[in-house]
Write a structure and sequence with these properties.
5-stranded mixed sheet, 4-stranded mixed sheet, alpha/beta, 18 helices, about 475 residues, D-Maltodextrin-Binding Protein, domain 2
Length: about 475
């Protein structure tokens, strides 16, 4: 069962990284007791690669049984799968002790009383919660109705990266934490707007393409606005808040301060170096960009690959993403991930807690910070930058508790592709000046409600519909 034994080199590395951590003499006897727990995870190999090898190196007497969810939601061709029902039946059959949860699943299972309250273990073991991301435990308790039913082992978020050298060159004040979108856009407008697109300086990039659709959605999201209500299954995009968000985004784009990317203009020619430098922030032509924590690694990799002095941005820092004046401490982009909880009726809760206490510990955070494989660890001591950059911006804002309709499984599955395509066309019309904002939002409200009222289509029907549409567009 323990496939990690076949991977000796990674285990040796894990042990070497963990050298020096203390397990505590008073726990020695318990460590020698044989115990087991069953964990529900995508696959055995991925579980051991991410967690199991490290944990098993320290706890060889704990046997981990992985019940794989790989292929669980894959129905027959053309068959729609009720994921919630399938997962419930799977859990009733396999009875996992340890459950990996998304934030919405954590909230739902907490409300239904399906999880074990971890506070008793934290108190009994005097588990050290100092140094954990500020507000994280309170947030998890809020979602758990006052109880702590799970602990995340990673966080991810976006931040506003800024090129300090460009700000200095043009005598513009640096951005600060918790600025709102209007203030950030005003900063962007202070940079020059002349010059050829491939050579000039831009003030701000927000989103992959940076078009009106993306920018409007980001601004609206910071204000707590979504285009559909997940509880009522009704569109909410035709509102004064959305009108203001789209108008703010449209004014920003018309100012010519925003960088927008046209994928049709990218012919993928040139060297890898050319490809790297096409990113305007990395090449030093962009003052500010909203990006995820992964962008730190992309800048580092660019600096290591391109040795030419001054070719890659060097003097940069981060502040929090733009926020709403009404919701200054929240962000839609902040996310607590890899939440582990224990099944309420688990007979192996003690062993499962031993695992949770490890992946939530400072020891695991120290190792995870060296893995460079996605999100940050949950201990702020290891969310840092050797050059003293403001990495607290990545965890200063807590996740928004507002429901996102993308998690709603009651929507007809065809809604997403059909609505987003419609939305893109309407926002393009606004940007080109062929439609007024209010007219486009009213249209999306009406047509979106019609889509939500449709009968669900099968995967085969959706695929055929999209194929037909593609063929018509290519005529």
């Amino acid at each position: 069962m323990k496939k990690w034994l076949k991977k000796a080199a990674p285990v040796v590395l894990a042990v070497s990284l963990l050298t020096g951590c203390s397990l505590g003499g008073d726990k020695a006897a318990k460590e020698n007791e044989q115990s087991t727990f069953k964990v529900m995870y995508y696959s055995e190999s991925s579980f051991f690669q991410e967690y199991g090898m490290l944990f098993s190196a320290l706890h060889p007497n704990v046997d981990i049984q992985v019940v794989s969810t790989e292929g669980l939601y894959r129905g027959k061709e053309g068959e729609e799968v009720d994921q919630e029902k399938v997962k419930k039946e799977f859990m009733e059959k396999e009875k996992p002790d340890l459950i990996l949860l998304e934030i919405d699943e954590y909230k739902k299972m907490s409300e239904e009383g399906q999880l074990y309250d971890l506070q008793s273990y934290i108190t009994k073991d005097k588990f050290n919660t100092e140094g954990i991301v500020p507000g994280m435990l309170d947030y998890m308790k809020e979602l758990g109705g006052g109880q702590l039913y799970g602990l995340p082992s990673s966080i991810s978020s976006q931040a506003l990266y800024y090129n300090k050298a460009l700000f200095d060159k043009y005598g513009i004040a640096y951005p600060t934490d918790q600025m709102n979108w209007a203030d950030v856009i005003q900063l962007a407008k202070q940079f020059p707007t002349e010059g050829e697109p491939k050579d000039r300086v831009y003030g701000l990039r927000a989103g992959y393409r940076g078009n009106l659709n993306e920018l409007s959605t980001m601004i609206a999201g910071s204000e707590g606005l979504h285009d559909v209500n997940a509880e009522t299954n009704k569109m909410t995009i035709n509102s004064p808040g959305w009108v203001n968000s789209v108008q703010t985004a449209l004014d920003a784009i018309k100012s010519n301060a925003m960088f927008t990317y046209d994928p049709n203009s990218d012919n993928n020619s040139g060297s890898y170096e050319d490809y790297i430098l096409k990113n305007p922030f990395i090449s030093g032509r962009l003052a500010m960009v909203v990006e995820g924590n992964y962008f730190v690694r992309e800048i580092e990799e660019a600096s290591n690959y391109i040795k030419e002095e001054g070719a890659v941005v060097k003097d940069w820092d981060v502040v929090t993403v733009p926020v709403s004046a009404q919701l200054p401490d929240e962000s839609d982009s902040a996310y607590y991930g890899s939440i582990f909880g224990i099944a309420k009726d688990s007979p192996n809760a003690e062993a499962a807690w031993k695992f949770i206490s490890y992946v939530s510990s400072e020891d695991y955070a120290r190792v995870k910070s060296k893995m460079n494989n996605g999100g940050f660890p949950i201990h702020t001591k290891y969310i840092k930058d050797d050059e003293g950059r403001n990495f607290a911006a990545f965890y200063k804002l807590r996740p928004s508790k507002r429901d996102k309709y993308t998690a709603n499984e009651n929507f007809p599955p065809q809604f997403y592709s059909m609505y987003y395509d419609m939305m893109e066309k309407e926002f393009t019309a606004i940007e080109k000046g062929t439609k007024e904002i209010e007219e486009a939002l009213a249209y999306l409200q009406t047509k979106g409600d019609e889509l939500l009222a449709q009968e669900p289509m099968t995967e085969k029907e959706i695929s055929e519909m999209l194929q037909k549409k593609m063929e018509e567009e290519n005529k």
